[in-house]
Specification:
The protein is mainly beta. The protein has 1 helix and 11 strands, in the order βββββββαββββ. The protein has one domain: Immunoglobulin-like (Sandwich), CATH 2.60.40. A 4-stranded antiparallel beta sheet has the order 8-5-10-11.
């Protein structure tokens, strides 16, 4: 499996990858952790798959997020497309072993070449960040 973009195209902004580039990122949005599976490349990724190194639970332990069919069931992911999956609220109590996980992302490009990427995420990187919490609206 390839671990490098297939080729680079010289443009006004310098060299840019040509082809699909699928990533799994963690974003913090309004106090919630969201897993984002995105194709940041320039062409369609076929059969994107995500394999977690450990069981990842969300919604305060109520859901095994790493077992969701979205990680193994997509036929394709168009360039610029993304799938957002709610992981948990920022301040949910998580055991230390539940705050760090790695994934392998695999997919095929339009020529049928297999591509693999590895990502490691540590939710402790977000510890101590201030967040905006809406205050309750008092009764009139």
């Amino acid at each position: 499996m390839s671990t490098e973009p297939e080729r680079l195209e010289q443009g006004r902004g310098g060299s840019q990858p040509v082809g699909p580039e699928v990533v799994l990122d963690v974003e913090l949005r309004s106090g919630a952790f969201v897993l984002v599976l995105a194709n940041t490349g320039t062409s369609t990724a076929f059969e994107p798959r995500v394999r977690f190194d450990t069981k990842v639970t969300g919604l305060q332990g109520e859901l095994v997020v790493s077992d969701l069919p979205i990680w193994t069931g997509l036929a394709m992911l168009r360039p610029g497309s993304q799938v957002d999956v709610l992981l948990d609220v920022q301040f949910a109590r998580r055991a230390p072993e539940d705050r760090r996980f790695s994934v392998n992302v695999t997919y095929r490009d339009g020529a049928g070449r297999d591509v693999e990427r590895a990502y490691t995420h540590d939710l402790d990187a977000y510890a101590g960040l201030p967040s905006l919490v809406a205050a309750p609206i008092p009764d009139a």
